[in-house]
């Protein structure tokens, strides 16, 4: 019997700390539903004390999710613990994850606290958190640069105080696998009562070793890995969930543990997170990159055709590639459409939103031979159907682009239901479209990112556009999808403007 390796997903917390990846409550809920389907053990849904919006999103996730534990992060102080406890209150299974830095540099320069004060705060906050839930996790921030004797002391005391999970973070991505494995081994050997808790690892990817370091910790006794979909996260990101899960599963001969992850949900989860955050997945990314299972050289193709395992150590379908063909067609009814959305974890705000999305689906089915799950995800993302009311909506767009001529765009859109017209020229059709919109809306926002990806294969595929806008310190992503990428661009721009204007949109947790 293999040990269970617990998967703690922090896409909605550490992942959200990636620049521009801040999400609305509805977007977080959609991702949380997908994470539940994927089978993650713990969803770190946010940092309740960061803002009322963050607390509200955690609470909404705690109300909606039954199959995973819902966790809120909290610094080791009373205010944060009370906020976290309140936010996870509706959860069937809720956890508070409290942390404080233990390295000399953090204690002295950032916290301006003596080691004894840090120890006291850690113990006090674990005890306070236990008043809300018996599932309390403690993290020693910057454990990688902490002194071993002090770490042992802190962990000993927080275990005595009642922490059930002890997390050892490489906050700055500084370690290397041999040292990180050794650190985990020593901690488990030296901390009294270490057998009573789950040991966890949380690695950042600054030197590209987050996954390798996490796996080294697992080989030395860690039984929880904190990770994110697509490796999203602060700076260079966190350990990527898909790589951890598939490494452990593919190398059963090496790892004496396994997860309860449904690997066929890995690719859909990756695509959803990429769509919502606007962070594209690089084509050569392990497991979830578009080329992860593509064989280009003749020798490789020949080998795979003769015997697949000559060059493949995993099967694409086992991680969710190709498992996403939609069984709905042009003639499918509204109920079948609604059922499929529910299967994908998409809950629309109203009947009106469902009708609009259904009309869009029919329209798309007319233009596109095959419709995939990703097409549906994009369809609900780009106009914010899931979120309900949107201020700006695109009605129509006409673009003229001809060799040697200046591109020109004419748009009709609604602003709170009132029809507006806009026209403009630019260096290309997309530039002309954005300039036309700005000439009427005058948002003053800065365009930080514009990117286009095809959602599925083929020239009839929908193009998915992400637009990142910044205004007064707030950064938002807008998405738009259409078989016409200029239309997709206009939708993405309007979606981002809607978020900038929406009171629902939360401030970035770091702001
Ligand atoms: O990187 C880190 O140390 C963290 C902690 C809050 C666990 O994210
Ligand atoms: Zn982190």
Automatic annotation (TrEMBL):
Pfam families: HCS_D2 (PF22617), HMGL-like (PF00682), LeuA_dimer (PF08502). It comes from the Bacteria. Residues 5-267 form the Pyruvate carboxyltransferase domain. GO terms for biological process: L-leucine biosynthetic process. Gene3D superfamilies: 1.10.238.260, 3.30.160.270, Aldolase class I (3.20.20.70). InterPro entries: 2-IPM_HCS-like (IPR050073), 2-isopropylmalate_synth_dimer (IPR013709), AIPM/Hcit_synth_CS (IPR002034), Aldolase_TIM (IPR013785), LeuA/HCS_post-cat (IPR054691), LeuA_allosteric_dom_sf (IPR036230), LeuA_bact_synth (IPR005671), PYR_CT (IPR000891). Mn(2+) binds at residues 14, 202, 204, 238. Keywords: Acyltransferase, Amino-acid biosynthesis, Branched-chain amino acid biosynthesis, Cytoplasm, Leucine biosynthesis, Manganese, Metal-binding, Transferase. Homodimer. PANTHER family: 2-ISOPROPYLMALATE SYNTHASE 1, CHLOROPLASTIC-RELATED (PTHR10277:SF9), HOMOCITRATE SYNTHASE-RELATED (PTHR10277). This is 2-isopropylmalate synthase. It comes from Thiobacillus denitrificans. The gene is leuA.
């Amino acid at each position: 019997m293999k040990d269970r390796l617990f998967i703690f997903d922090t896409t909605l917390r550490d992942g959200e700390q990636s620049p521009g990846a801040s999400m609305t409550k509805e977007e977080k809920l959609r991702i949380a539903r997908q994470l539940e389907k994927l089978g993650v053990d713990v969803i770190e849904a946010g940092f309740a004390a960061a803002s009322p919006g963050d607390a509200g999103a955690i609470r909404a996730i705690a109300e909606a999710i039954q199959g995973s534990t819902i966790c809120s992060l909290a610094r080791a102080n009373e205010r944060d613990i009370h906020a976290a406890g309140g936010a996870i209150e509706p959860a069937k299974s809720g956890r508070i994850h409290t942390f404080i830095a233990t390295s000399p540099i953090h204690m002295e320069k950032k916290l301006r606290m003596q080691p004894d004060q840090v120890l006291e705060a850690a113990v006090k906050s674990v005890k306070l958190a236990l008043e809300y839930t018996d599932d309390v996790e403690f993290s020693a921030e910057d454990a990688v640069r902490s002194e071993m004797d002090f770490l042992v002391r802190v962990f000993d005391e927080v275990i005595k105080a009642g922490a059930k999970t002890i997390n050892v973070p490489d906050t700055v991505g500084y370690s290397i696998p041999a040292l990180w494995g050794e650190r985990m081994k020593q901690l488990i050997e030296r901390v009294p009562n270490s057998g009573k808790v789950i040991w966890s690892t949380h690695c950042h990817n600054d030197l590209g070793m987050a996954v390798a370091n996490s796996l080294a910790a697992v080989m030395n006794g860690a039984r929880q890995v904190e990770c994110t979909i697509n490796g999203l996260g602060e700076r260079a990101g966190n350990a990527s969930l898909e790589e951890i899960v598939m490494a452990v599963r593919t190398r059963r001969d090496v790892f004496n543990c396994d997860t309860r992850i449904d690997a066929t949900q890995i690719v859909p989860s990756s695509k959803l997170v990429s769509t919502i955050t606007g962070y594209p997945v690089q084509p050569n990314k392990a497991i979830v990159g578009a080329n992860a299972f593509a064989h280009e050289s003749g020798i490789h193709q020949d080998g795979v055709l003769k015997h697949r395992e000559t060059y493949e150590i995993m099967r694409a379908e086992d991680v969710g590639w190709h498992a996403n063909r939609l069984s709905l067609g042009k003639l499918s009814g509204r109920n079948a459409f609604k059922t499929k959305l529910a299967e994908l974890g998409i809950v629309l705000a109203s009947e009106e939103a469902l009708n609009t999305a259904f009309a869009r689906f029919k329209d798309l089915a007319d233009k596109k031979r095959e419709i995939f799950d990703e097409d549906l995800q994009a369809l609900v993302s780009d106009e914010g159907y899931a979120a309900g009311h949107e201020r700006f909506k695109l009605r129509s767009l006409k673009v003229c682009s001809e060799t040697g001529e200046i591109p020109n765009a004419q748009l009709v859109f609604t602003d709170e239901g009132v029809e507006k017209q806009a026209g403009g020229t630019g260096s290309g059709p997309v530039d002309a479209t954005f300039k036309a919109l700005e000439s009427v809306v005058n948002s003053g926002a800065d365009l930080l990112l514009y990117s286009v990806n095809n959602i599925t294969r083929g020239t009839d595929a929908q193009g998915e556009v992400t637009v990142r806008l910044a205004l007064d310190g707030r950064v938002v992503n807008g998405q738009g999808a259409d078989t016409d990428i200029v239309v997709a661009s206009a939708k993405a721009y309007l979606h981002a403007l809607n978020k900038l204007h929406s009171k629902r949109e939360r401030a970035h947790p770091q702001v």
